[in-house]
Write a sequence for this structure.
C-alpha cells in the first residue's frame, strides 16, 4: 500500500478506489470524457468562464496565485490542481466552501448514478477527477474556474473545457515518453490548450528554448489567439510588475512585501497570474460578474487584490505549498529546525530551486546547505542531482513509500558516493551543522515529509 493509498483509505474508501484507477499506461484521447459530458448537462458544467493553466513547471503556483487574486476581489473561484501532497481534497477547492471527503464522496456517487456503466467504467482517474471538479464548481455556483492541466495539453482531460484564457508557464523536457523528446514537440502538445481568438499568456523567452517559443508563436498565429509574452508585454523585475498588454491600460505595481521572500520563479509566476487577472477584469467573458461586484477598473482592482494577499487576508491554496517553502519544525532534542521544502521533481525544477537558493541569501553564511532528496524512478534522477549538488552538501538520498520511488541501482556511478537511506525518518536523523535543511524531490516525497513532520496544509 502506497503512502497515498494509506492516507486516502483512512479518510474515505471510495476515494481510495478512485485513486486505484491511476493508469499505468497513458491512453491519449478525449473521447471517454466527451461521452460522459454528452450524457450529463455539459452546457451547465462548461458555461462558467474558465482559465486553463499548462506548462512543464510553474502551473501550480501560477494557478494558486490567480485563485488568490480573484478570491481577494470576492469572486467565487474554483481551483482544480494535481497532484496532492497529503489529502485528495487538495485537488478541488473553491473560494468560500471547504471541499471535504464527504462532499467529494457524495458527488462521486451521484456521478456514477448519472452515467451509464458503459460510459462510467472506462473513465480514467484523471477524467473522473475533472468531472468531479466541474460538478463541485457548478453546485458552488462559481464565477470563474481555474484548471491546472495534468499532462501535456492537447489530450489532457481538462481540455474538454472552453477556456476564455489559456496560460502556458514554461516548456521543458519532461514526460518525454508521452509528449515527445524535443521541446518543440512538447510545445506543440501544450499549445493544444489554445483556443481560436482567445488570449494566451506565455512565460516568455526564459521559460523555453527558441524552437519551443517559435512553435507557440506559430500556433497562436494559426489560431488567431493573442499571445502575451512575459518579458515583452509584461515584466517582473526588482522593482515590481509592469504591464504593457495590448488593449489594456498600462500599469506598474510594486511587489507585495511578502514577495521579498520569493525566489525568482515565484515572482515570474505571480506576474503571469497578475497578467491573467488584468485581462479577465476587462474581458466580455466576465462582464456580468464585474457588474455584480462593482469592479470598474482593472488596475485598481489588481492593486487591491495584491494588497489583500500582502495582508494575509486570502489563504494560501495547497497547490502552492512545498514550493520554496521555508518553515520551522520542532524536534525532540535540538529545538526547532528550519527546513526548505521544494517539489523540484525534474531538471527545470531543480534549476529553479538552485537559482532561488542563490538569490535568497541563504548561502551567505555557508557555501552549501544540507539536503535530503527523493526523486521518482522515471525522472532524470542523475541530471537532477547534478544540478542540486551545486548548492546542496552534504546530500542524503532517501526512498519514499510510493510505487515509483527510486533505488540506489537507478543512480549513475558519479552519484554512488551519496548515502541512500531507506526512509525519510533515517535521513532526518542525520546530523546537520547548517540551516535550513533543504528537503526536495518528488511531490510524493515532499507530501510524505510534510505529514511526517506534522506540517498542516490548511
Amino acid at each position: 500500500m502506497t503512502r497515498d493509498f494509506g492516507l486516502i483509505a483512512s479518510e474515505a474508501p471510495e476515494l481510495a478506489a478512485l485513486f486505484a484507477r491511476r493508469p499505468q499506461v497513458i491512453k491519449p484521447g478525449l473521447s471517454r470524457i466527451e461521452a460522459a459530458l454528452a450524457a450529463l448537462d455539459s452546457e451547465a458544467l462548461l458555461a462558467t468562464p474558465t482559465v486553463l493553466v499548462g506548462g512543464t513547471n510553474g502551473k501550480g503556483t501560477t494557478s494558486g496565485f490567480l485563485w488568490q487574486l480573484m478570491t481577494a476581489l470576492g469572486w467565487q473561484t474554483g481551483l482544480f490542481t494535481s497532484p496532492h501532497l497529503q489529502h485528495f481534497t487538495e485537488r478541488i477547492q473553491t473560494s468560500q466552501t471547504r471541499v471535504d471527503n464527504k462532499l467529494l464522496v457524495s458527488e462521486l456517487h451521484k456521478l456514477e448514478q448519472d452515467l451509464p456503466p458503459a460510459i462510467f467504467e472506462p473513465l480514467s482517474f484523471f477524467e473522473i477527477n475533472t468531472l468531479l471538479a466541474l460538478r463541485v464548481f457548478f453546485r458552488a455556483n462559481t464565477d470563474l474556474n481555474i484548471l491546472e492541466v495534468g499532462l501535456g495539453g492537447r489530450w489532457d482531460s481538462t481540455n474538454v473545457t472552453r477556456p476564455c484564457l489559456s496560460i502556458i508557464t514554461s516548456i521543458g523536457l519532461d514526460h518525454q515518453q508521452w509528449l515527445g523528446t524535443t521541446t518543440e514537440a512538447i510545445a506543440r502538445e501544450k499549445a493544444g490548450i489554445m483556443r481560436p481568438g482567445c488570449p494566451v499568456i506565455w512565460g516568455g523567452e526564459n521559460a523555453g528554448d527558441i524552437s519551443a517559443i517559435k512553435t507557440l508563436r506559430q500556433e497562436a498565429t494559426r489560431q488567431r489567439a493573442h499571445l502575451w509574452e512575459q518579458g515583452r508585454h509584461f515584466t517582473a523585475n526588482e522593482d515590481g510588475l509592469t504591464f504593457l498588454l495590448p488593449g489594456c491600460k498600462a500599469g506598474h505595481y510594486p511587489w507585495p512585501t511578502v514577495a521579498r521572500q520569493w525566489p525568482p520563479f515565484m515572482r515570474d509566476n505571480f506576474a503571469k497570474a497578475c497578467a491573467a487577472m488584468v485581462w479577465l477584469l476587462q474581458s466580455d467573458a466576465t462582464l456580468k460578474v464585474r457588474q455584480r461586484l462593482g469592479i470598474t477598473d482593472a488596475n485598481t482592482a489588481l492593486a487591491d487584490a495584491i494588497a489583500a494577499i500582502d495582508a494575509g487576508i486570502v489563504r494560501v491554496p495547497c497547490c502552492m505549498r512545498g514550493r520554496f517553502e521555508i518553515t520551522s519544525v520542532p524536534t525532540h532534542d535540538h529545538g526547532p529546525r528550519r527546513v526548505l521544502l521544494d517539489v523540484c521533481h525534474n531538471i527545470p525544477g531543480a534549476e529553479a530551486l538552485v537559482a532561488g537558493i542563490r538569490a535568497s541569501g541563504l548561502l551567505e553564511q555557508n557555501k552549501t546547505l544540507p539536503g535530503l532528496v527523493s526523486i521518482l524512478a522515471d525522472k532524470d534522477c542523475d541530471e537532477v542531482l547534478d544540478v542540486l549538488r551545486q548548492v546542496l552538501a552534504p546530500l542524503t538520498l532517501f526512498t519514499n513509500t510510493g510505487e515509483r520511488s527510486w533505488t540506489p541501482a537507478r543512480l549513475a556511478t558519479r552519484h554512488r558516493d551519496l548515502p541512500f537511506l531507506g526512509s525519510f525518518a533515517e535521513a532526518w536523523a542525520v546530523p546537520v551543522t547548517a540551516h535550513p535543511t533543504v528537503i526536495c524531490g518528488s511531490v510524493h516525497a515532499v507530501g510524505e515529509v510534510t505529514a511526517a513532520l506534522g506540517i498542516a496544509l490548511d
